[in-house]
Design a protein that fits this description.
By secondary structure, the protein is an alpha/beta fold. It contains twelve helices and twelve strands.
Length: 310
């Protein structure tokens, strides 16, 4: 058997997992991946593989059909987000598939709250200034008593809320699941975009769906309190980046910390690079030694189960 791995965090640590495959005489195809492979690259590679551990690649109907026409028998999406995977097509083609939810809630929440603190206290800008020979002392923002509009209350959102509450922040959560239920106090619940005017921070931790795409658009940005700070550790397309750029230029948004973007890696000519007070990440929120090991082991177990490998 042969398994294709296209998830960058797992690929960077593949030597740790190779013995698991070798013990079962399974060959691992490990192409060089910066963020994702292209659809044509996958269509070329996948037919020769029995299994696929998917990263953020375009796992489209065309890709699955090409794999099915060859040897592909099963696939697993490494991680939580599944907006890049056509699960319906895989099912119709008879390809068993699953993802690995509940793997990264604490890790991504750590990053989200780290971004909140960094934007409030501007320590990235201070670091840049000191390295440049200066001695900057920007006036920061205290967290206690400030309001966070937390969009998404799944595993990542719940873990983020716990950390924000520990900092004595007020959390207004947005999630369709919460609208019909009762969150644990003192979490408050609203329907997006109601009450966004109250927020000092917008923190996005939700899934990307047709309904949430560009949920933070020009109209919603115009409603926000001037000087609001935006954090996105979920998916880039939740934000209309061109609208965010205009909001940053006008000062409606004071700064943003973005671990994800609509186009990844971030293009060299992206206007987001112009804003010194913003923090730009590399879609790396889940990438800790512990989390990569946990998710990779789960993905391997699921794939082996689908393939009938013990």
């Amino acid at each position: 058997m042969k398994v294709l791995v296209t998830c960058p965090p797992m690929l960077r640590n593949l030597d740790e997992f190779r013995p698991v495959f070798e013990q079962r005489a399974i060959e691992v195809a490990a192409p060089r991946v910066v963020q994702t492979l292209t659809e044509p690259e996958l269509i070329e590679l996948l037919p020769g593989c029995d299994g696929w551990i998917i990263g953020d690649d375009p796992a489209t109907r065309a890709v699955f059909a090409a794999g099915k026409a060859g040897n592909l028998k099963a696939a697993v999406k490494w991680g939580v987000g599944v907006d890049n995977v056509d699960f319906e097509a895989a099912g119709e083609l008879g390809i068993p598939i699953a993802n690995t939810p509940g793997m990264f809630g604490k890790e991504v929440a750590d990053l989200a709250v780290g971004y909140v603190i960094a934007l409030a206290r501007e320590f990235v800008a201070i670091d840049r200034g000191v390295r440049g020979g200066g001695w900057p002392k920007p006036t920061g923002m205290s967290l206690a008593g400030r309001t966070v509009a937390l969009v998404g209350y799944g595993d990542i959102g719940r873990n983020t809320a716990r950390r924000l509450l520990a900092a004595e922040m007020r959390v207004v959560a947005y999630d369709p699941v919460l609208e019909a239920g009762h969150p644990p106090p003192p979490i408050e619940v609203a329907v997006w975009p109601d009450r966004v005017e109250e927020a000092d921070f917008i923190v996005l931790t939700c899934a990307l769906t047709p309904e949430t795409r560009h949920m933070l658009d020009a109209t919603t940005l115009s409603r926000l309190r001037p000087g609001v700070r935006v954090v996105n550790v979920a998916r880039g397309a939740l934000i209309d980046e061109s609208a965010l750029v205009r909001a940053l230029e006008s000062g409606q948004v004071s700064a943003a910390a973005l671990d994800v973007f609509e186009d990844e890696p971030l293009p060299g000519d992206s206007p987001m690079r112009r804003f010194d007070r913003c923090i730009l990440g590399s879609h790396n929120g889940s990438n800790t030694v512990d989390a990569v090991r946990r998710a990779s082991e789960r993905a391997i177990d699921l794939l082996f189960g689908f393939l009938g490998v013990s």
